[in-house]
Design brief:
Largest sheet: 8 strands, mixed
CATH superfamily of the largest domain: Glycosyl hydrolase domain, family 43
CATH topology of the largest domain: Tachylectin-2, Chain A
CATH class of the largest domain: Mainly Beta
Helix content: under 10%
Distance between the termini: 32 Å
CATH architecture of the largest domain: 5 Propeller
Number of helices: 0
Radius of gyration: 23 Å
């Protein structure tokens, strides 16, 4: 199954560097994208009666940002998605910006019918004429298929108050909203008995990473792996529109305690930012509400894009995709509390027949891997030996390369897309690095590739790097090599089945 492939020494230097006409990329096989038009932030994630709902920012009229409305898709397994009609469209004066959805089990709003709980959406109404952002409520009594707008429920009279995440806090028997004062880099918390009347509770920030905007917050409680018996902590995640670890958009998080009114980070947290992902294309991640009681997981999904170049990515007829849903856990180790992320277990149902190879010897001459095409999963266990760098290269017919690399001497794992495809935006080509302790002489990599996206999970999700790439023509060829000294690799690779809904 393994044979060596000699690449021309000039392959990299011959890559074209001039701008080429934008071309559409192949439609992703297992990442959600609308059939047409623009998509950004996931919002309104909720589970109800056997369906996972994925709402998202959507422009029904074009493939650039504008006319913001709530698009809608549903899934019974988190991997096969059915796109539904627009759920909450813009009106003449108000766009429907990001927000969240809950099931009002006790009908605290009084908006349910026939003894059934309504699905409630709390979202930011953006009124550009009035230069105002405030929070609106809409409701559905038919499993999210049709919606009625109840109206504005919270305004503080400012233009940058947005992105409410709402959840039920059982100890205080109140609804809690966390939103942002975006331009002030603050999270603000409110409480309510009925999702209609809201009372200010507290604020948090600025802290950690700061930029032009804080956006898309989330707040949730998690058990602590490796902590005291029964220990739980709260996680506050915040996204930055710019100035994140990759230079553009990205996410950070804080770990602490929440008493129903105020979030307090653990001692020592709030200085240097702790990043959610080390790539450029994992933004606005938010978790599902109301997962089944027999499913203890916390699951989120992110928008695989970056505001620097989001409107320029060379795709058609849709622009924007989501990451795969990820199960997250909170662990306590030598660095303190840290989130880990891995694809949800349901993803494994998409795997085709595996191909495995053990003790592959890597040297300067690239080795062809038993992986084909642009849609695959690969698990690799790397033992460095004395190698200075180990690389996995995805190379197209024109010589463009996406590089996944490990540099043991400086404790870093990286994705290098600086020569991954034709130029389309000056802010795109880059190399993104995750700090990883490589002192044990080995590392585990799990790699999901879906035509124009790489999601890399390092050491069981202790670190992640998520990057888009837009290659040239032809199928992808997968090779691996080591520089400085030989290294070894054990790997298993799977083709991924096409989503029949696409």
């Amino acid at each position: 199954m393994i044979r060596k492939l000699v690449l021309l020494a000039t392959a990299v230097t011959m890559i074209p560097i001039h701008a080429e006409a934008q071309r559409s990329d192949p439609r992703p096989a297992y990442h959600f994208a609308p059939k047409r038009n623009w998509m950004n932030d996931p919002n309104g994630l909720v589970y109800f009666e056997g369906e996972y709902h994925l709402f998202y920012q959507y422009n029904p009229h074009g493939d650039r940002w504008g006319h913001m409305s709530w698009g809608h898709a549903v899934s019974r397994d988190l991997v096969n998605w059915e796109e539904l009609p627009v759920a909450i469209p813009e009106t003449a004066d108000v766009m429907a910006f990001s927000g969240s959805a809950v099931i009002d089990w006790k009908n605290s709003t009084g908006l349910g019918r026939g003894g059934r709980p309504p699905m409630i959406a709390i979202y930011t109404g953006h009124n550009p004429k009035a230069n105002l952002q405030s929070q609106y409520l809409a409701y559905s009594n038919d499993r999210g298929r049709t919606w009625a707008v109840h109206g504005e429920v919270l305004s503080i009279g400012t233009p940058d108050f947005r992105d409410p995440k709402v959840f039920w806090h059982a100890p205080t028997q109140r609804w809690v909203m966390v939103a942002v004062m975006a331009d002030e880099n603050k999270a603000v918390l409110f409480t309510s008995p009925d999702l209609k009347q809201w009372t200010f509770a507290s604020s948090f920030g600025p802290a950690g990473g700061r930029g032009k905007n804080w956006e898309c917050p989330d707040l949730f409680e998690m058990p602590v792996e490796g902590g005291r018996p029964g220990e739980k902590r709260w996680v506050l995640s915040i996204n930055l529109g710019d100035n994140a670890v990759g230079g553009g958009s990205g996410g950070q998080y804080f770990v602490g305690d929440f008493d129903g009114r105020r979030f307090t980070p653990v001692e020592g947290w709030g200085g240097a930012p702790v990043w959610t992902d080390y790539g450029a294309d994992f933004y606005a991640a938010v978790t599902w509400n109301d997962l089944p009681k027999n499913d203890p997981r916390r699951i989120w999904i992110g928008w695989a894009n970056d505001w620097r170049y989001a409107e320029a990515i060379p795709t058609y007829p849709s622009r924007g995709i989501m990451t795969v849903p990820r199960a997250i856990t909170l662990r306590k180790g030598v660095q303190g509390y840290r989130l880990t992320q891995n694809p949800v277990r349901e993803f494994e149902a998409l795997r085709g027949a595996p191909q495995a190879a053990r003790q592959i010897r890597l040297g300067e001459e690239p080795v062809l891997l038993p992986v084909t095409g642009g849609t695959a999963e690969l698990k690799a266990e790397l033992a460095f030996g004395g190698a200075e760098q180990i690389s996995i290269a995805l190379t197209d017919a024109e010589g463009y390369q996406m590089i996944i690399g490990v540099n043991p001497t400086v404790n870093e794992v990286f994705l290098d897309r600086s020569r991954s495809g034709p130029h389309f935006h000056d802010g795109f080509a880059n190399r993104h690095v995750a700090p990883v302790d490589l002192s044990r002489g080995k590392v585990s990599l799990r790699l999901l590739v879906d035509e124009s996206i790489v999601e890399l999970f390092i050491n069981d999700g202790e670190q992640t790097i998520t990057d888009r790439f837009f290659r040239g023509s032809g199928s992808l060829r997968w090779t691996a090599s080591a520089r400085g000294a030989p290294a070894t690799m054990d790997l298993t690779a799977w083709p991924i089945k096409q989503d029949p809904m696409r």
